[in-house]
Structure formats: C-alpha cells, structure tokens
Amino acid sequence: MTEKREINRLLHGLRGEIPIPGDKSISHRSVMFSALGDTPVHITNFLHAQDCLSTVKCMEALGATVEFLGDAELVVTGHGLHGLKEPATILDAGNSGTTLRLMMGILAPQPFLATFTGDASLHKRPMARVIRPLSMMGAKIAGRDGNRLLPITVLPPEGQLSGMVYDMPVASAQVKSAVLLAGMYAKGDTTVVEPFTSRDHTERMLEAFGVVTEKQGTAVTIHPVRAFAAPPEIEVPGDISSAAYWMVAASILPGSDVLLKHVGVNPTRTGILDVLRDMGANIEVLNRRISGGEPAADIHVCSAKLHGTDFGAEIMPRLIDEIPILAVAAAFAEGTTVIRGAGELRVKETDRLQAVTDEFNKLSPGLVEASEDGMVIHGGRPVRKAEAASYDDHRMAMSLAIFGAAGEGVVLERPDCVRISYPEFYDILGRNA
Ligand code: S3P
After folding, report:
1. Which of 33, 174, 319 to mutate to test the pocket of ligand 1 (most atoms within 8 A of CB)?
2. In the predicted model, what is the mean pLDDT of the chain?
C-alpha cells in the first residue's frame, strides 16, 4: 500500500492516442448475465479492475465458471437462469455498489441463502433503496441497522416474487437494474419509473440475452422471463467515465491533442460531453459505431479556453460519476460554475461533495463552496501545490491527480484506490510527464 504519491505539474500538453479501459458498468453486467446463461460467453475488453473482479468472485461462488484468457478477455459459463447454487462462503462485494445492488436483485428470487459483506466504504452506503422495493415484491432481505446497511443476508422468498410498478424516489441504474433483474423471476410484469432516465446498460444487455424490456418515457417494464439465451460474445466498449479524466486534462492543458479510442457513447452516459462543450471544450466524436449493443466512438480532444457553466438534476444521471473531474474543469475555467441537484454524490464511495470541497480548496483556497446538493466553483483562481486526500475513492484520486498535473502539482494521500476502476491510470499520466 502506497501512502503518498507526488504528481508534478505537466510542462506540456497531452498528445497522441490514449487507450481507454473497458466500461465498468458493462463489465459487471457481462459477467453477471453470462453466469445466468447456460452456454459459454466470450467477453472481450473486460475491465480488469478490482470492482469487476469482485463481481467475478461472487459469480464463481454462485457456481459460474470463469476462465481468464488474458487480463481483459474471459469466458463465463453458467448453469441457466435457475442454475445458481447456494454459496458456501460470504459474498464480498469489496468497494462495489454495482456488485452488491445488482446481485441483491438476482439473488432475491433464489431458493437459497446468501450473505454479503464489503469494504469500509460499502458498509456506509445506503442499501434500503434496493432492499425496500425488493421486499415489496416478496423478497426476504435482512440488513444491519433496520435493513439499511451491510452485512446483508438474502433469504429464500416464501413463494415466487410478484411483479409491481415501482416509482423510484431517485434516478439510479443500480436500483432500476436490481428490480428488473428480480422481475425476470416474478409473477406478472415489473415496471420501474425513474424521475430521470439513468444508464440503460442492463436493458441493452438483456436484449442480447433475448430478454426484451419495454420503455415508455422514464418507465421500463420487464415481463417474466422463460427463455434466457446467452450470446456467444460480448465486446465491452471503453469507459467514458475513465475517458473523462483525459478529456478534461487535454482541455485544460495547453498544447494538448489526444485521441481516446473506442469509448462508449451511450446517450445515458454522455452528459460529460454536453457540459464540456457548454464550457467551450474542443471535442469531436468520430467513427461512431455499435459495439456489443452499445454505441461507441473515438473522441478527439484539443485544448481550449473553458468558461464556467451551470447544470442541475436533469442531466445528473448522465454524468453522475464525472462530477469530481468536471469540478477540475470548472477550477481551470474562467468564471463561476454552479452544480445543483447532485445530492446523490453524498452517498457515493465517499461524500464527494464534501471531499471535492475540502480537498480542492487545499489546492486553490476559496475555490469551492458546497451546498446540501451541489457546489459553486469559482474558476480561474490561483492554484498551489499541497497535500490532498483521496478518501480511498478512486474518482477523487484521479481528479486530484489531474488537478495537480494541470496546476502546481499535488501530493496525493492514499493513491492506490485507482485500482478500483483504472489500474493503469498513473502509468498513462506518467507517460505524458
Ligand atoms: C452504476 C450506476 C450509478 C453509478 C455507478 C455505476 C451502474 O450508480 O454511479 O458508478 O453500473 O449501474 P447509481 O445507480 O447509484 O446512481
């Protein structure tokens, strides 16, 4: 475990091609759904990072066979939709909310018991948002502190789960996915209605397994599933949430000109492109194509003079994980940026509104003011080198690293958490030093 990593100011812009690792959300789903099929699925460009490896371990404990052919290439074989077996050990979701929440949806209908644990961060994250709707369908789930927190045990339900219409209080792809996955096994149809549409990777990938969901506005309906046919291959596109660090770095570092290859550009994920363009960024989306049922493209970014902007709740699900790096863009932009409707950031891997405010202000005093559900960022102020903490949150670590590289440097406390989603991050940054 490295306690501190020093990142120096980059003296020139970023140039050339940057390969982008596989999408985290899609990698999780590729393994989970393949483990529910009964024929081998060859998965390529899989994100070989800690979060997705937590999903692999859990699915293996439930009886799936996983064979790695390389870091980013694996074959997953399950025993069918009703072929999961009772795990002999506690399932460890590590740092991964997606692993835990989606798997609760998969396990709620199963005729066996499973208990989950996770790391210190996951133990603090709210799970009632999944336990409550699943319980309304008839699931038996018990969690610490009034069914809110890990450890959590999923017990066999008394009978078959019942479908329902569920009005979600917050937009969340994890909650939506958990309910839809449980809905595959339910009696009758299951509909989830979101305040705003969150990422739709579950719906898209289920289609590749022959399961059609119906979408109407922000509502998605799934019917009870009888046939679940795994595709022979799933190609995972690059993660736009990882590409976001280089989009912002290239925008704010003068003299930059980078090509980010094979990035997922699913419209439920591209809020970062809209906001950066609003700020004056120079971004082109090239070579659009479909990869594994998902839109993908190459993204060309050159440096540009950014200015402040404002955005709120409506776009939030489309850029929820990009707020810390967008805050870096805002710090180096001229003028003020106002972010509203971002209360969900308080329950991510850490409270990201508080973490961004406290840590960014160390690098530029007076830069950020936090509110209950947002931030005001006074861009273009002087920056300095300082020590700043990651809170063991991968997105905080990478955002602070880019802040330091574009500013006067940073000494990053607890930098190793990038292995959650982007193990090669520092190597790529170092290559450009
Ligand atoms: C994810 C959904 C989002 C996102 C997370 C991944 C997913 O979480 O922040 O990193 O894969 O479904 P919420 O559903 O809590 O918004």
Report:
1. 174
2. 97
Give, for ligand 1, the residue of 25, 28, 315 to mutate: max count of ligand atoms closer than 8 Å to Cβ: 25
d(CA 309, CA 335) in angstroms, rounded, equals: 8
Residue 321 annotated in active site: yes
C-alpha to C-alpha distances, 7 to 187, 188, 318, nearest whole angstrom: 55, 55, 30
Name the residue with the closest Cα to ligand 1, atom 16.
172
Length of the chain (residues): 433
Output the ligand 1 site: residues, CB below 6 A: 25, 98, 172-174, 177, 198-199, 320-321, 344
Sheet of strand 140-143: strand arrangement: 91-92, 114-117, 149-155, 140-143
Q: β-strand 219-222 against 190-193: which pairing, if any?
A: antiparallel
DSSP state, residue 386: E
Query: Residue 432's pLDDT is what?
Result: 76
Whether pTM > 0.85 for this model: the answer is yes
Structural domains in the chain, sorted by start: 4-22+237-431 (3.65.10.10), 24-219 (3.65.10.10)
d(CA 356, CA 112): 42
SS3 of residue 46 by DSSP: coil
Over residues 277-336, the pLDDT tens digits come to: 999 999 999 999 998 899 999 999 999 999 999 999 999 999 999 999 999 999 999 999
